[in-house]
Amino acid sequence: MKVHKIESSKKGFFYDVLEHPNGDITCHCDGWKNRHKCRHVKEVAELVGRELRLAELPDPPGLSAPTLFEDPDGFVNPMLASTLKEGMSIEDFGSDHIMEEKFNGHRRIVLNTPDGVFAWSRAGNLIALPGHIIRACTRLAYGVFDGELMAATGFATDVKAKEHADGLTLHLFDILSIMLFDEHGHQFGLSSATSEPQNVRREYLVKACSKLAHPGVLLALQYPVNHSTLTKIWNAGGEGVIIKHKDARYVPGKRSKQWIKIKHLEPGYMTVTEFIDGLSGAHSIIAGVDDHGVEVRVKSLNDEWRDWFEKDAAQFIGRRLVFEHQGRSKSGKYTSPMADHWEDE
Prior knowledge:
The protein has helices at residues 30-35, 39-47, 131-137, 198-208, 227-235, 303-312, and strands at 2-7, 14-19, 25-27, 52-54, 80-83, 97-102, 106-113, 116-120, 126-127, 143-150, 169-182, 187-192, 217-219, 222-223, 240-245, 255-263, 266-278, 281-289, 295-299, 320-325, 338-342. The chain folds into three domains: 2-50, no CATH class; 80-263, D-amino Acid Aminotransferase, Chain A, domain 1; 266-342, CATH 2.40.50.140. 15% of the residues lie in helices and 37% in strands.
């Protein structure tokens, strides 16, 4: 057995990394003992010339209860899409972009490891997944995935409803980390894939999903960018699409201009009843009712509007405002209403 001394980030302190006769490399640090993952082992592997490569897809692990460790290492702050710039349309995107459906559910970051399947909300909270989703995820390759948990109804508000739990589906559209193995099949832990371009991560994702055998977890479809597919998605009740540049890197926690969202907007009409102070200042929220008495609140369109309201709010009371929205919930409330223009202008 050969011992390698690897200096810690704490100057003057060294870790013993052991190179075993059978080819295994281990370390006595807590990271290796708790998760079989540490940078010291990777450094030794590179030092002795052992080539790291993507793992061959493992056979699905058994469905016995996973061993939960206290703080699973795998959450990645999700990357977000930007809105379409004013004056642009879907026709402005060419063959260097692809298009995916924008799902109306709950964002989930999912980790599949030999220790079990774990999931986080967009905010980074550890979230329980339904049993059928967990069982389906065990047929993924080991890694960290980005996806959307959807209810069969298509309403995001139904994702947490107990009566819809059995019909939930997880749609995966990106892979953020992959499990690395050496040429002898020894596992080195997760390695980030976020610096890879979109089209390369897609190849990894397709491979990672190739052994899926349950409709509870699905690989998100990709399309060439075109208006006819967008229209079909809207006609089927879909929220819209995300247009992604094929070279886009995954930037955790950022709203990227290389991911563009296009949503289906519908016009609505409201009669203004009052103004409310909000995060943007006085008179920054316009309150009113539509023609059926449904209450609506929208943000003031810009600073110029807020200046008008502060100078003479009374002249706008009773005036008709046209707003845009993304449909209505089952309770009748408007989804994401946004001020657009005055009806009499």
